[in-house]
What we know:
- By secondary structure, the protein is an alpha/beta fold.
- The chain has helices spanning 46-53, 76-86, 102-112, 117-130, 146-158, 176-193, 228-231, and strands spanning 2-14, 19-31, 35-39, 61-66, 69-70, 87-91, 164-168, 196-201, 212-217, 220-222.
- The chain has one domain (33-57, 75-231): P-loop containing nucleotide triphosphate hydrolases (Rossmann fold), CATH 3.40.50.
- The strands form 2 sheets. A 6-stranded mixed beta sheet has the order 6-7-8-3-9-10, with helices on both faces.
- The protein binds adenosine-5'-triphosphate.
- Adenosine-5'-triphosphate is lined by residues 13, 15, 20, 22, 40, 42-48, 202.
- InterPro entries: AAA+_ATPase, ABC_transporter-like_ATP-bd, ABC_transporter-like_CS, ABC_transpr_LolD-like, MacB-like_ATP-bd, P-loop_NTPase.
Amino acid sequence: MTILKARGIKKVYTTQAEKVYALKGVDLEINKGDFIVINGPSGSGKTTLLNILSGVDRPTEGEVYIDGKPLSELKDSKRTLIRRNKIGLVFQSFELIPVLTARENVEYPLLLQKIDRSQRKKRVDCILDQVGLLDMADRRPSQLSGGQKQRVAIARALVTEPDVVLADEPTGNLDTGTGRKIIELMNRLNHDFQVSFVIVTHDLSINQYARKLIKIRDGRLEVNNYDKNSMA
Ligand SMILES: Nc1ncnc2c1ncn2[C@@H]1O[C@H](COP(=O)(O)OP(=O)(O)OP(=O)(O)O)[C@@H](O)[C@H]1O
């Protein structure tokens, strides 16, 4: 089942000095249960692509479909709702709210979804347990290590039970060992919950975890070794 589909995506940033062709015609399908790594060097268009897939930014040309519906035809309010319900986001710099505890950070998207208190508690406890942070639930982000912060961010991305999690350099601020643990955690959650993951990174060591490995170079996708399992 296809969750997200991008067709003919181009993105041009116009600055005073020049036009930057960040994406030059990208096609991509994200299916249920996928674990996709998109690897590319700095400036190749990774963040731009994730922002367009999540509906945070609009393409200059092309279309993104969520559950078959074109995003461009939806009003802003409806796009926001879809993003909130269907897509979880994880960032390099965690983006946690500093004044809230780990538990409150994870709970926050459920407040936006107006989920009632007892359901919120149940879901937050369950996902904090899954990422191994129940015993640190009352700490603020400043009292957590980088890896722990990223686990809170992953819990926050998953608590709404999205179809897909889009992660932008999720190991970028972590040492190699911690980064590997974070990817292994994502791998397990992908397997246990059948949530799709798309990880964009310049870190080549993450490639080994990909079930679909895509390279991005200069705004274009190079789909070599597209499905490692089916080709094995
Ligand atoms: N708002 C913007 N205005 C102008 N150019 C931009 C803007 N955002 C990105 N770019 C340019 O678009 C290209 C792709 O940028 P993008 O951030 O998507 O790359 P990236 O692969 O995520 O890079 P990094 O790994 O360094 O984060 C780059 O040349 C970048 O300079």
